[in-house]
Amino acid sequence: MAASSLSLAQTLRHNLANPAALGYLAVVAAVGVWVGVDALFVEHADASLAAVWLFVVTAPTSFLFLALPGALSFVGVAVGAVAQAFVLGAAYRWFRNRPTQRAGISNA
Questions:
Q1: At what angle do helices 75-97 and 19-41 cross, to 10 degrees?
Q2: What's the pTM value of the predicted model, to 2 decimals?
Q3: CB-CB contact of 52 with 71 (8 Å)
Q4: Which has the closest alpha carbon to 84: 40, 17, 21, 4?
């Protein structure tokens, strides 16, 4: 099946359901849980900068959304995570599916 004949759903599934993309999304989710625990359960004398890590692990895509007002900037975290997982998944598939070149061993 040619790459151009894949539907959008198939392309998303192929590029998001592989170890590289899922591993990256797991890291983003773990950072999100850590930020949530820090925000809800940890007492701080001043403001915590833990939420900055969500933007760091999804950078540079999430930085495009920082100018949005209030909590809307966190939309960039979700968009950045999915966009970068897609790119990582596509790169993973490209490396896995490319033809291997065998090095010829000669006795010269």
A1: 160
A2: 0.79
A3: no
A4: 21
